[in-house]
Automatic annotation (TrEMBL):
It comes from the Eukaryota. It comes from Neocucurbitaria cava. Belongs to the SAICAR synthetase family. Pathway: Purine metabolism; IMP biosynthesis via de novo pathway; 5-amino-1-(5-phospho-D-ribosyl)imidazole-4-carboxamide from 5-amino-1-(5-phospho-D-ribosyl)imidazole-4-carboxylate: step 1/2. It holds the Pfam family SAICAR_synt. This is Phosphoribosylaminoimidazole-succinocarboxamide synthase.
């Protein structure tokens, strides 16, 4: 897999750029297809670090592709935007981009982040402590941080513009934003079914899938299609199953950015811009991503 650490992707102007996120850049191949290119950038506490994590973009791409192949075998009728992992001919002079790229169908994105939580943590835990609810849904009293929920919950959020912050919304509000009852019901149903299938798979490999974020789009026939990246450590909370129980009631170690977050907090750099991560933290973080990939897919890198 990619040996160099790539923070800035340079495709030499060969395709028009459609968007650039914290980690990925998106290019238009033609009217129907997009190219997703994952860099080695890493963000923590919503800030991108100055240096990257070697291999990360390729690992995230491979993980997404693993799930795009696996999920339709588990969730009947599931369609995904994934086409293939080859480079379009116009990029044939840049073969080093292949491992970090995937071609997808270009669709109309449904304007919510479709989050599913199987465990209570993060912003869900914060809301629960204040009001006993998560996204306005009342939960039983007495839950502790990190506990498994009685059943997985659909807890959507808004999709903020770049730089903005997504806000948790009630399922009713999400249905309003989607503005089509049939589509909204399908998004909820697919999200819960995908989470359940993925959590079962992850559990077999020693990983707790605490929560995750999906995005969906609509194709020309208004079919609901799974888009974006899926079930990577950037879009999901992966916890080691082994230490889950002993860590109930406090923050769980996560499979990806734990070393980085601990280092940032220890140095008083949490939320600061322009941070260069030292080599040992980079290496340990790279190792965590590799471990998550190898556990979930059963493949070695
Ligand atoms: P970040 O995730 O870094 O906070 P972001 O969401 O803007 O920022 P990305 O996730 O890299 O950045 O951007 C991907 C964008 O592409 C999202 O807006 C997503 O909705 C959109 N997208 C994903 N899949 C498709 C698709 N198949 N067709 C059209 N747009 C898509
Ligand atoms: Mg995103």
């Amino acid at each position: 897999m990619a040996s160099q650490t790539v923070v800035n992707i340079d495709i030499q102007g060969k395709l028009p750029k459609v968007a650039s996120g914290k980690v990925r850049d998106l290019y238009a191949i033609d009217d129907d297809k997009l190219l997703f290119v994952a860099s080695d950038r890493i963000s923590a506490y919503d800030v991108i670090m100055d240096n990257g994590i070697p291999g990360k973009g390729a690992l995230l791409t491979a993980m997404s592709i693993y799930w795009f192949n696996y999920l339709p075998t588990q969730v009947p009728g599931l369609k995904t935007h994934y086409i293939n992992n080859s480079l379009p001919p116009v990029l044939s002079s840049l073969p080093e981009l292949k491992d970090r790229s995937m071609q997808v169908q270009r669709l109309r994105v449904i304007p919510i982040e479709s989050i599913v939580r199987g465990y209570i943590t993060g912003s869900g835990w914060s809301e629960y402590m204040k009001s006993g609810t998560v996204n306005g849904i009342t939960l039983p009293a007495g839950l502790i941080e990190g506990q498994k929920l009685p059943k997985p919950l659909w807890t959507p959020s808004t999709k903020a513009e770049l730089g903005g912050k997504d806000e948790n919304i009630s399922p009713e509000k999400a249905r309003e934003l989607i503005d089509n009852a049939k589509v909204a019901a399908k998004v909820e149903e697919l999200s819960l079914a995908i989470y359940t299938a993925a959590a079962a798979r992850a559990e077999e490999t020693g990983i707790v899938l605490a929560d995750t974020k999906f995005e969906f789009g609509l194709d020309a026939d208004d079919n609901v299609v799974l888009v974006d990246e899926v079930l990577t450590p950037d879009s999901s909370r992966f916890w080691p199953k082994e230490t889950w129980e002993e860590n109930l009631g406090r923050a769980q170690p996560s499979f990806d950015k734990q070393f980085l977050r601990d280092w940032l907090t220890g140095q008083g750099l949490k939320g600061k811009e322009g941070v260069k991560v030292p080599e040992d933290v980079v290496m340990k973080t790279a190792e965590k991503y590799r471990e998550a990939y190898e556990k979930i897919t059963g493949k070695s890198t």
